[in-house]
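Worked example 3. Consider a protein that binds cytidine-5'-diphosphate.
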Amino acid sequence: MPKKIIITIDGFSSCGKSTLARQLARSLGYVYIDSGAMYRAITLYFLRNHIDWSREEQVKEALCGINLSFTFNEKSQQSEILLNDENVEYFIRDLIVAEQVSEVAAIGQVREFAVRQQQLMGKQKGIVMDGRDIGTTVFPNAELKIFMTADISLRVERRFKEMYAKNPNVTIEEVKANLELRDYIDSNREISPLRRASDAILLDNSNLGIEEQLEFAISLFEERITAVPAS
Ligand code: CDP
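Given these inputs, the predicted complex is written out as structure tokens:
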């Protein structure tokens, strides 16, 4: 059996975590899990079903009706999230969801629900997971942890381009306000706030190309995997 490790990528909104995580997983033959997609799908369910998430009972009941899974889209070569067997990848990227997701993700019951599933997905190792608390709470013993950041103006520009392609009514001001608000809520919530784990490697990709950041991550991986004892 080849040695396998867990790789965590945490960081601020829209700094390229998923791009790096996806490419890294593909290069290594690992599974990529977008933990943010899980919180987005839960938020979509709450919005569609008019759940009042300030009420514990409603949240508890709603979570019982949610089944999350991932499927691999051969055409786009990307993994996509299913909410109760419906592919909701397109809908969870809407601003309507982005505007509420950090509030929903701060709820204790929601985090317990998502973290439990994330930990199960990592049981066999050979996984790259990106998010906010993956290196601190979900896999505190992960062999390789990366913490990503980038200049806020670059992050806004990148996310605006993505969102504008889907919806030309979106404005750059809305996107900027959303990223700033989410970073604030994610960093200041009580449970598992966004933090750089003390053993996470900092990666500021403001001045790095996609290829360069991938090379950097692969070199970190090679260094770590040689240190892992054969099982
Ligand atoms: O793609 P982007 O960086 O903008 O966000 P995302 O990874 O899709 O995550 C959406 C939201 O889910 C974040 O702003 C957090 O509020 C929440 N989240 C979280 O609380 N914990 C995680 N491990 C991942 C996401």
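Take a moment to read the result before moving on. Residues 6-216 form a domain with the Rossmann fold fold (CATH 3.40.50.300). The chain has a mean pLDDT of 96.
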